[in-house]
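Hi P.,

Sorry for the delay on this. The queue was packed all week, but I finally got your sequence through. Input first:
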Amino acid sequence: MKTAVLISGGVDSSVALRLLQEQGHDITAFYLKIWLEDELAFLGNCPWEEDLAYVRAVCAEANVPLEIISFQQEYHDEVVAYTLTEIKAGRTPNPDIFCNQRIKFGAFYKKIGNQFDHIATGHYAQVRVVDGIYSLHAAPDLIKDQTYFLSHLSQEQLSRALFPIGGYTKPQVRELAERFNLPNKARKDSQGICFLGKIKFSDFVKHHCGITPGLLVEYETDKIVGEHEGYWYYTVGQRQGIGLSGGPWYVVCKNTEKNIVYISRQYYSPDKIRNSCELAACHWIAGVVPQVERLEVKLRHGAQRYTCSLIQEAERVILKLDDRDQGIAPGQFAVFYRNDECLGGAMIVKVL
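Then the structure:
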């Protein structure tokens, strides 16, 4: 079985490669060059050189051919442009979801055509097929589970996807890295957004959006309590980085036209339920709306799920949580589950 393995230089994708090799797959490794020359210019160096060095070492040790493919333009057009549009609109983007849908399992699929039977990555997720329908399932390690970021994949994309470490926990993957004696076996997990690597998200935003002073206003009283450098640096529910005494202060909402950020010290008061929102662009992995009254939902990557219901109101789809969540933010994604199966997701467009 000919398999293309996307490798990043981290432990997860390296273990995935070695597991498939052990199983007898005919492997070619691919490193996607996605860093942006614009970002490198203001950084002054290339933080991805270390990643590529580890990739080469892992492939050399395994005697696996490596190809480096540039997707810089595709990344800019499909992921970075989306991210900047959302930020400037005052919403909170999730570029990793579109990185998977549009690049790793999109542009890359098109690039390699039918040369390979499968495309494998180091994601913590599992694929199953019953009666010709492919389904996406959570990894046993619920903290590392990455189905949230894979929730917008299609049937065609899942049909060729392999996630070799999806049945393992992170400690087990670390043990496998030791057994394989990988060059990067002790390397720490990467954090942050897919295309930024070690660049801080705030630095990326500052580079593209700059600084535009605006007002911090207390939500309940309309009293001006401070200043900020631009609404794009804030997201709903944020506590850190507001820089005011007498708190804790939380971001409640933003007025993008007037560059005002509304904050509150009563964010968690009993009258602020925060348990519903309006959704748009629903994507269902099976291609059909699930016929169940009750689902579980994640509002961000992590183990936290809420029991919920979806309500169709004329042209609107409303998500109602059984509990409350203080960080429901427009632009983020609600991703739905039935037991361990990830059913799909939708963008949050309005907090109700």
